[in-house]
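quick one, two chains, predict together pls
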Amino acid sequence: MVELFRSVINIISAIAIPMFILVFLGWGLVKKVKVYEVFVEGAKDGFNTAVKIIPYLVAMLFAIGIFRASGAMDVVVAILSPVTNLIGMPAETLPLALLRPLSGSGSMGLMTELMKTNGPDSFIGVLASTMYGSSETTFYILAVYFGSVGIKNTRHALPAGLIADLFGMLGAVFIVRILFGV
Amino acid sequence: MLNYVWISLLLIGIFTAVGRDIHDEVTNPYRNGVPITAHFETTQQPTSLHPIYKGTIVISAATFDQFYNVTSATDIRQSATITTLASGQLKIELPMGDETPQFWKEMAKAAGGKDKLEGTVSSFITETGALNFTLERVSFVKIKAVTKAAIEYADVAVTISLGLIGVMALWLGIMKVGEAAGLLELLTKALLPITKRLFPDVPPNHPAVGMMIMNVAANMLGLNNAATPLGLKAMEELNKINPKIGTATNAMCTFLVINTAGLTLIPATAIAIRAGLGSADPGIIIGTSIFGAGCATVAGLIAVKVLQRLPGYKKALEPDEAEVKNG
């Protein structure tokens, strides 16, 4: 069942982009849109959008870089580990949960390391990869999405995003404990 | 809130780095200025042309561990060269290699990212090989790391942003055609029952809705290259109906939370890494990840809808008094 679901999704993912292109441009042709001219007209905004993001992303990433390089994460882990031990979350996976919203490449490295030391099919290995798959890099998305339209006052987006991250991590611990628990 | 989180990351980072380095100065874990005793096995005697000794430093695991307060499995055998300087002083150089203990590698990195450690020899008896040497000072490790990270990450940010140009242009072009052909309108109408509840402030036929649907679809399928450009286009459309430029609207925050929760049908990166590490069933995390990200999405949506009613966040959306007067 899972296998079937997986292969169906894999096929859809593989053909999705060519299909998007075909359907969109083909439909344009049917509707007598001047496809080439309209495409180029839209595409010329690509550069501006990318450049607009730079200051926001620099601000976000250099702060995250300083935080990570300082080793402050160890201190936060030491403070939080008694709490997470209570809910049955292994101490090894706490740094991953904390890093997940901050850094995509950093949390990917941590996940890989946890699976290397504990084995990918161990409880910690499954939990680590589930945690990685249960959320996105909130701070990066915030900087890029809001940066592209010059939003400086992000209002409740960050707290809501972090609440989502928290529940993503808790959900991962809950389901992996039930299905693969020790 | 972003203001406080941002400044906290910076302050906590810098203060922790300073604190750890002061701690290191006091406890001296790198044994700055303290000589270590070793045995030197000479493999190449100095000649008149090359006045250097080449050979191997041997330190027993017990001695090394006691000296640096670490635990190592085997005795240390580290190749080294001893050079006589013009002043008559002996200089020792340890090139970092496979046989180098981890602790020395870290020290070499902290000393300035070099691939060798240098030191001065306090006594060397050539006949017996008895050697006493002091390695170079290693200090302010974390402060240096923080400085390096600040500059490196600023660079990474530019690389990432500029790397988006190509895919941005591609997807913006395709979307423009879809818009002109009325395809997005069809999509928008089909999903209206869901979108009008999620984004009540956005007019039902607005192009932003179609873009957001496309972005969520791309995310679900794990098409990251397409999802970001589509998401940014959706943001641009949402910004056109923003009454207060520079401040996020309710719809923008809702859309952002859907993205940060990261619901995807196939967590492709995690599966690929699991497969690479020899997992018996790499895809076993599909179900658990959908559950986890589903929790994140539901919690995020509830949070965003509750938080947008808080007076402080509500007030931020109202136009400034100055703008009202001018407008």
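Chain B touches chain A through 115 residues (CB under 8 Å).
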